[in-house]
Design goal:
Elements: H1 3-20, H2 22-42, H3 48-65, H4 67-78, H5 80-85, H6 91-105, H7 107-119, H8 125-152, H9 157-172, H10 185-191, H11 196-206, H12 215-234
Helix pairs in contact: 1-2, 1-6, 2-3, 3-7, 3-8, 3-9, 3-11, 4-8, 6-8, 8-11, 8-12, 11-12
């Protein structure tokens, strides 16, 4: 594993992106914060704790999925990936570097949601550890999905519409902003194909907002492994 390359890329595409383009942070937070406001208004504050916890999950998930656009842009437009192919950098190094970059990029939004969680007295040591593990799992799965998507397209113009649709489906359709028991159980397992669904269900149980659904723990662990393996083997490293 090329640790120096991974850390350098995380610094340049994570920290430097925040410093040179703060508007990207605002744009990435716009949808989850808007939904948080709507949930607060429409439920008269009754579901605001669900929206805070779910909003954090939806935010991290959307940041990871947005990597599909950058990955496709680097491969098809800038041809930066061609430089790595001819070097000692391996596909897994590239994937880990991208994942860490987006985790770093998400830090300002995570801090904002942690502050909101403190306002509503949601966090303790146990809950914080669970949420950290969920965010790590989410950034891995969603970034892996990004690589799968970006490697399957041949024209850059297609990626923006695809990622936009997938981001909406994985952020709003799952029970991120409302109790998971509002969803019929059979349908809940269907939308559990999106990693944000088991993450949201686990978070609601861990924070005492809903009954714990242990099956979702196993689903998230399996999805994390499967999406990572698929991304590793399906990533288009050399153009044919």
């Amino acid at each position: 594993m090329k640790v120096r390359f991974i850390l350098t890329m995380a610094w340049y595409y994570g920290i430097k992106t925040i410093l040179r383009g703060p508007s990207y942070i605002v744009a990435s937070l716009a949808t989850p914060l808007t939904l948080l406001f709507l949930v607060f208004v429409l439920s008269h504050g009754a579901l605001v704790k669900f929206a805070v916890i779910g909003g954090l999950i939806a935010f991290v998930g959307s940041v990871g999925l947005s990597g599909a656009g950058d990955s496709a842009f680097f491969r098809l437009q800038l041809r930066i990936q061609d430089l790595y192919v001819s070097s000692s950098i391996k596909p897994f190094d590239y994937m880990i570097a991208f994942t860490l970059s987006y985790l770093v990029f998400a830090i300002p939004g995570i801090i904002l949601y942690v502050y909101l969680g403190e306002v509503y007295r949601l966090f303790n040591l146990y809950d914080s550890i669970i949420m950290i593990l969920l965010m790590l799992s989410l950034i891995i799965t969603t970034t892996s999905i990004s690589f799968i998507i970006s490697s399957s397209i041949k024209h850059l113009r297609n990626i923006w519409g695809i990622t936009g649709i997938i981001t909406i489906i994985t952020s709003i359709l799952p029970p991120t902003f409302y109790p998971y028991y509002y969803v019929p159980k059979d349908f809940l397992y269907i939308i559990a194909l999106s990693p944000t669904t088991p993450a949201a269900v686990i978070a609601q149980g861990a924070f005492g907002l809903s009954p714990m659904m242990n099956s979702m723990v196993y689903i998230l662990i399996i999805e994390t492994a499967v999406y990572l393996i698929l991304a590793r083997f399906l990533v288009r490293w050399r153009e044919n």
